[in-house]
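Reading a protein record of the kind used here takes little practice once its layout is understood. An example of such a record is reproduced below.
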Amino acid sequence: MENRLSAACVTPAGEDLNLNQLRAELLSKPRFVLHLKDIVAEALVIPQLTVVVKAKPPASGDVHDYVSSGPYWWPDPKQPDGLPYLRRDGETNHASAGDRPKLEKLQAAVSLLTIMSQVEDSSDYARAAARLLRTWFLDPRTRMNPHLRFAQGIPGICDGRGIGIIDTWGLCFLVEEVRRLEIGEAWTSEDLAGLKEWFSSYVDWLINSQEGRQECAETNNHGTWYDAQVVAFASFCGKEEVARDQIGKYSLSRIDQQFLVDGRQPHELPRTLSMTYCTFNLLAFASLAKVAARLGINLWSWKSPQGCTIAQGINWMLPYWLQEKPWTWPQIAPFRKSRAALLLEMAGEGVCDPVFSHAARSVSSHPLERFSAWEFSPTF
């Protein structure tokens, strides 16, 4: 495995996405800035987001434990109490989301506030982002415990599952935003140290828990996002050897597991939201490759023993995102092509290919879609 890992170590650490470019694009079109300000104004006054506010506590009795239900599970209409729930792939049951919507709001708000703090010279945005981060991760009264034992449970079947770990996929991008927060009065070195300690504990749980081992063994987008999380969080909190170990033991082989030589993704194409999941899985690989670059590992250029690469997977999807070919696999809900913008921007940067960068602009209607993992118009 050591030789396989060193084969990927061919370039120095990658650079962050160019925020100067984003700032220039936003300022060149005032309507973009005005629209962004309207949305960020909501994030500035968002109420505190915390796991401790729940309709009922989890099985542990500790309200600090994160709780969610499987998104595609529904009450059995044939049973008086609806139990056990039944699976309907791709059909989201929003009524049983638990803490997941609050986590998604946190991630979207921190992303927008941090980006806006880079665009405009104002401490208000960084201060609001810091307040949200402290409430969710640091304040003993409101913080989330660093584990997901009760994520994506199924009423009538189980309190939580290993695949619930995917609920925190967006934290890969949150730690990227935190890197951009300047240390000062709004966000102190003690705050940053506390957040790194939280993620260090979470990495330990991901690696050592039964749930983490189950998710690591998944061979579709769940396995990719598990790797992306372990690598991103370990790198963020200073556990670089843990990140390297995850890439060497698991991430390289996933490229063979999840792509055919032509770039298609056999584990995602049968899904009822196949285009969505193919894109989502590639975003995980892009996130993983970006962090790996900081460790001197070039996943973008690494070719598996079967000849598969991440870039081939993106190239295979490209004509469908650009609507040059019709999508002929299951997709029971509309797909917004802008969802591919961020990963295309990351790929363009990672492989220095202008084709990907131009495609990112083609599928996006606003430059922010190429720099944030979150919907441009979240509801706070």
